[in-house]
Amino acid sequence: MSSARARILTGRTVKGPEGNDTPRSLLVPQLQHQAWRDAPSALKLDVSAPGTLDSLQFVEDSEHENELGPQEVEIEAKPWGLNFRDVLIALGRS
């Protein structure tokens, strides 16, 4: 195995795209598909790096276990979308 310009080059006799995922996953964190019902805990949408929409990700919501205050309500989440204002906030331009 040799390295050239931050790429891993390996010799192979047949094309095998599935073999590309293993070396890549060791170098860069990969997205994982997981059903909502299989999530280990409550999730929230987070902007890890304001200014880029690529940084939107679901993370564990540590506040979910806290008791609701007297002026708070809990709502059941349904499918939703982002509007223009949400995009501006994610881009750090609110």
From TrEMBL:
Region (Disordered): 1-22
Superkingdom to which the source organism belongs: Eukaryota
Annotated protein name in UniProt: Polyketide synthase
Source organism of the structure: Lasiosphaeria miniovina
Taxonomic lineage of the native organism: Eukaryota, Fungi, Dikarya, Ascomycota, Pezizomycotina
